[in-house]
Write a structure and sequence with these properties.
single chain; alpha/beta; globular; six-stranded parallel sheet; 8 helices; about 210 residues; about 15% strand; two-stranded antiparallel ribbon
Length: about 210
């Protein structure tokens, strides 16, 4: 089996559960802005996308202002971000094996601090590439390529773990292996051919 020197993770839907806290406020935004009622199943397809892109797709005007309100609703939501069961154990396992670990996400630095620091996950990551660090977001390969450079590893020494089709495309375009994290049960928008499929974080231990 191929051995990796580094593992890069997506954050939302991979390391932490932020599904409800993002999607229910989005339903509220859609009702306020478009006077349309969406179900949770209706909005779940938007979960992997950057917030401003979601508002653009929905045809909402004044997107920057509305996005700020959406973020406020998210931060006011009673159910906060939490790491998925087994995530900390998995991160600790790879850290103890000397594997470099990093995150590549469309999350902003402010939201990263709110979600990741509160869950004590930041300490496991040597590199974080977030929204403000790049000109082009996933599925463009720029965030992953920047992460490779910071980690000082080549594209055949790393694997990217994510839950979304955009994660798969970014990894493919960066020419690195991709593992599909399915524990969040987020539906994909297209068929993928990942190097690995994991239904539980502990399954990732086969990478060593």
């Amino acid at each position: 089996m191929k051995k990796y020197q580094a593992i890069i993770y997506d954050i939302d839907g991979t390391l932490i559960n932020t599904v409800d806290m993002n999607m229910y406020p989005l339903i509220r935004i859609i009702e306020e802005e478009l006077n349309v009622s969406y179900s949770f199943a209706d909005v779940l397809k938007f979960y992997p996308l950057p917030g401003l892109k979601v508002l653009e797709i929905l045809g909402i005007k004044d997107q920057n202002m509305v996005y700020e309100r959406w973020v406020r609703y998210v931060n006011e939501y009673p159910q906060k971000a939490s790491s998925y069961p087994g995530i900390k154990e998995m991160l600790t396992y790879f850290a103890n094996k000397g594997i470099k670990q990093a995150a590549v996400s469309a999350k902003t630095k402010k939201q990263y601090a709110i979600d990741m620091l509160a869950n004590d996950l930041d300490k496991y990551l040597q590199v974080k590439i977030l929204a403000e660090d790049v000109n082009k977001a996933k599925p463009d390969p720029e965030p992953l390529l920047k992460c490779l450079a910071a980690l000082q590893v080549s594209n055949d020494e790393v694997i990217y773990i994510g839950d979304a089709y955009s994660d798969y495309l970014a990894a493919s375009r960066a020419k690195i292996d991709f593992a599909h994290a399915r524990w969040a049960k987020i539906p994909l928008s297209a068929k993928i051919e990942p190097a690995y499929i994991f239904d539980d974080p502990k399954d990732m231990m086969v990478l060593l």
